[in-house]
Amino acid sequence: MDDVRSRTTLEDVARVAGVSRATASRAVRGGELVSPVALEAVRRAVEQLGYVPNPAARSLVTRQTDTLAVVVPEDDARVFSDPFIAQAIGGVAEALAHTPKQLVLLMRARGQENDRLLPYLRGGHVDGIVVLSHHRDDHLERELAALHLPLAFIGRPLEPQLAVPYVDVDNVAGGRLAAEHLLAAGARRLATISGPLDMPAAVDRITGWSEALAEAGVTEVARYEGDFTLVRGEELGARLLAEHPEVDGVFAANDLTAAGVLHAARAAGRSVPRTLRLVGYDDTQLGLTTHPQLTSITNPGRDLARRATRMVLDQLAGQPAPPPIIITPVLVERASG
Amino acid sequence: MDDVRSRTTLEDVARVAGVSRATASRAVRGGELVSPVALEAVRRAVEQLGYVPNPAARSLVTRQTDTLAVVVPEDDARVFSDPFIAQAIGGVAEALAHTPKQLVLLMRARGQENDRLLPYLRGGHVDGIVVLSHHRDDHLERELAALHLPLAFIGRPLEPQLAVPYVDVDNVAGGRLAAEHLLAAGARRLATISGPLDMPAAVDRITGWSEALAEAGVTEVARYEGDFTLVRGEELGARLLAEHPEVDGVFAANDLTAAGVLHAARAAGRSVPRTLRLVGYDDTQLGLTTHPQLTSITNPGRDLARRATRMVLDQLAGQPAPPPIIITPVLVERASG
DNA sequence: CTGAAAGCGCTTACAG
DNA sequence: CTGAAAGCGCTTACAG
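Above: the input entities. Below: the structure tokens describing the complete assembly.
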């Protein structure tokens, strides 16, 4: 029977195998301290009965759920439209592929706060947590640190004093790279469409960008705060080109925003990169499908996620909270700037 | 304490509230058959202790997990790049937002089979299942029907005799719409880049397309089997334009494929829609961000998913398996064809 | 290596 | 409306 409702229990297996429940339990879990004969008998009984352990019963005693949560405090529309987020989730899935852990993706329901997320996590449904795309106001560091579960952030947490483990790319360096590249290409009337300033990645990229411009003695033509979406990138791109037609170089906070700017540029009759140089961020697949292809700064979501997941797995194995890992980005030059 | 490790139990709550564990349990679950006084006392104790019920213990007796699975037998790269899949998952999330159920997304790990999925589902981790993007070879209908869990497919199942509940769009009608539209626009040298033919949606679209062409007495110039991805759409689009430059109308099996064809057309110096008319499928956001925007057939993923989820929820509430729901698509005309 | 027994933290008839 | 008791299906010292 595959029927979940009338499940066979360990008791049944033990009876059929002619051993005690304790021995059956040991055998089912791999055979530590079990004689070859008993092991084989149990194996046969499991096979014959189609036995599958009841995870609730097991969790109740082991206090382990074999489940790891990926928390993305964004609504599904964002989660499923941002290639960086997609890469990162894929990276977690990959890191978990050879473990018995299942990935559970937790995001915000449309228009809802995080108030469904936290009770779920507090409820003890998961053994560990990887967080990405966190914002200042969600106070996720504090809320999650208080759970005392193995935890890792992708992207610098906003409250460093909590010493939450994390992996990140050096976004200040990334912002610098964008500025230096546009300056080296001869652009002097520079503008940026940033990410949402309640996110550390957005803030850091702006910081590096501003520092590099200041050092070069160049003043920004304009700066707009975007939200890492294509639609907003297009809106702000259009506004930028209307209000500051003299602009000759744009740093878009991510590839999605850059793709929006590209649309706006086409609509405004601007030629990229001839009269407008454009640099994106994240170096995603998206940048290969635009025309022209996007010059972009690397932000290896898959790799970051793999490392963050390993951090969680290591803590689960009893290791102490690891120090942060910071990856240095590089600029990948393509046609847009 | 928020600490998950040293959790307070119902026992503690009962003691502090001065009632029995049974009464505490009733009070915690909403107060049926509990006096106002006891209810209030328990409420206060819960508050004071920060009590959160242990889901494993609860599941063990109720045999409910308050979890609903969305099964997408594709690897993460596909799941996170196809806007139709994204919409559908969002629709499930939306339908669940006002229930106590959590959504668990189960996909295939890269390069793996479904052999991690099934044991998980069999293990009794979830109360119900919504499936989408199924293929012939995964035999998911049979495997999942054998679980006897509330179930619904988005998209016609491949084995109708199992009578699995499902919602679908009339893809045969959709294929017809594409053909009729291109013919009405005057295109006569028609080709299609289909979806993978192990998927019912792909097969049905081709069926409708072929029927309409046959009725009009028009013979296809070429047909290629794609896989619903942009990259493959671009490859096959390039091949089509090279091998059959006379083609003047293309039906791409989804918007992702159509976007790929658009790239190929640009690379080949073809002007859409002037010398090449193009119709996509799914009517996704993507079609609004291409240039020109895509004419497309509607495939309301969000709505389909909401309905499928409701089917599962209804079965969970004891209702019998519902009959299929079939939605009729329409063609949305934009600039591409 | 094995088994009897206790216990994980809940819910749910049942008797009152 | 309330509480004592049984039981959900496992794991894990413990004694042998």
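Note for the figure: Residues 1-5 of chain B have pLDDT under 50 and may be disordered.
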